[in-house]
């Protein structure tokens, strides 16, 4: 499978992501094509002004230069909407340009043409951007076009055959190299896209993005018709608990930042120690942890909150300091919300309400 085809599959998280990535790639292709054709037109104009360049067909050369500039500007400015064109359409454009490139070679000296090195621009474009076999077709078309001077030049004249053969071999090497590099790039991007998010560096717990992903999965599985469930079924429950370390700023001011970090680590270890393997815990804010407790209703959430408070009851910022206090709140799925953002909002509202209660309350 080609690198670009694999690249199309890198973003499966949301509907339409694949299509969006492909459109973006084609948009980039169009912009690059425009820039390269403008550059080719500039090279052609500069070459026509230099000594030693044949001017027997100057009118044709300037016409082709004008076409290159206009076409390049249309691509670069988006007048030609390349992002809406298929890869086959991009390949067709490459092939359609070959007769004009052959005319440019003929009008500027044939096998001795100063235009021939500019073919490298089209070669790089086709070899990198076109997927799989299309890259080879596009590059092959350039090789054939570069060989057209043999139609009106003896193979031995100016080493025509040898120069054309060398160009063909160089095209093969460049294409193999760029296709290999594209595959490596796509593989690296795919690995980065599927790698788990890094943990919180202080506690080793998950971060907020990992918890969000777990919540999304839990909500989706609860409403997955393949397992005979609908969001809101009585048997499909879980809760989101928020655990806040109270007055952590005071701990920092009184005992120092290292003591505050140790409190966070000890509380995290205490929370992790009372959870089941199926639960997910993350550090979502500097002084806040969040727990996704599968299968937990109101009684189970209350028991878990009490277990967390008891487990952390010996965490102290210093030898003579009192234990840290925790405020714990929770929101139930599907009772209080049926989406992750709503669950966080409901749990956060409960957290704010419980801050005003005596610390013995969960």
TrEMBL record:
Record carries keyword Transmembrane helix: yes
NCBIfam families with a match to the protein in the record: GGDEF (TIGR00254)
SMART domains named in the record: GGDEF (SM00267)
Keywords: Membrane, Transmembrane, Transmembrane helix
Family annotation (InterPro entries): Diguanylate_Cyclase, GGDEF_dom, Nucleotide_cyclase, Rev_trsase/Diguanyl_cyclase
A GO molecular function held by the record: diguanylate cyclase activity
Pfam families tied to this protein: GGDEF
Organism: Capillimicrobium parvum
Protein name: GGDEF domain-containing protein
Transmembrane segments: 35-53, 59-80, 87-107, 119-144
Entries under Gene3D superfamilies matching the protein: 3.30.70.270
Boundaries of every GGDEF domain copy: 236-362
């Amino acid at each position: 499978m080609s690198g670009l085809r694999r690249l199309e599959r890198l973003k499966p998280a949301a509907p339409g992501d694949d299509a969006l990535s492909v459109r973006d790639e084609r948009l980039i292709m169009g912009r690059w094509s425009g820039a390269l054709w403008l550059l080719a037109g500039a090279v052609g104009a500069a070459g026509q002004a230099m000594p030693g360049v044949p001017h027997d067909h100057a009118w044709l050369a300037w016409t082709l230069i004008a076409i290159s500039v206009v076409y390049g500007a249309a691509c670069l400015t988006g007048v030609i909407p390349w992002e809406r064109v298929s890869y086959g359409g991009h390949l067709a454009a490459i092939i359609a340009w070959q007769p004009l490139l052959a005319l440019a070679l003929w009008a500027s000296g044939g096998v001795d043409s100063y235009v021939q090195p500019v073919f490298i621009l089209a070669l790089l474009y086709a070899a990198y951007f076109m997927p799989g076999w299309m890259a080879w077709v596009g590059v092959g078309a350039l090789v054939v076009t570069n060989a057209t001077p043999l139609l009106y030049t003896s193979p031995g004249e100016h080493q025509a055959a040898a120069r054309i053969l060398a160009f063909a071999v160089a095209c093969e090497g460049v294409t193999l190299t760029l296709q290999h590099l594209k595959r490596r790039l796509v593989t690296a991007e795919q690995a980065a896209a599927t790698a788990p998010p890094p943990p919180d560096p202080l506690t080793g717990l998950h971060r907020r993005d990992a918890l969000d992903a777990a919540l999304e999965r839990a909500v989706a599985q609860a409403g997955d018709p393949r397992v005979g469930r609908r969001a809101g079924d009585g048997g499909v429950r879980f809760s989101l608990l928020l655990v806040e370390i109270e007055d952590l700023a005071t701990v920092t001011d009184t005992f120092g930042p290292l003591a505050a970090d140790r409190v966070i680590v000890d509380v995290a270890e205490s929370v992790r120690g009372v959870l089941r393997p199926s639960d997910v815990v993350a550090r979502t804010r500097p002084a806040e942890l969040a727990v996704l407790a599968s299968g937990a209703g109101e009684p189970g959430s209350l028991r878990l909150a009490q277990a967390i408070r008891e487990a952390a009851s010996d965490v102290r910022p210093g030898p003579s300091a009192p234990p840290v206090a925790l405020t714990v709140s929770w929101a139930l799925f599907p009772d209080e919300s049926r989406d992750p953002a709503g669950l966080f909002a409901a749990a956060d509202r409960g957290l704010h309400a419980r801050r005003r209660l005596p610390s013995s309350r969960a």
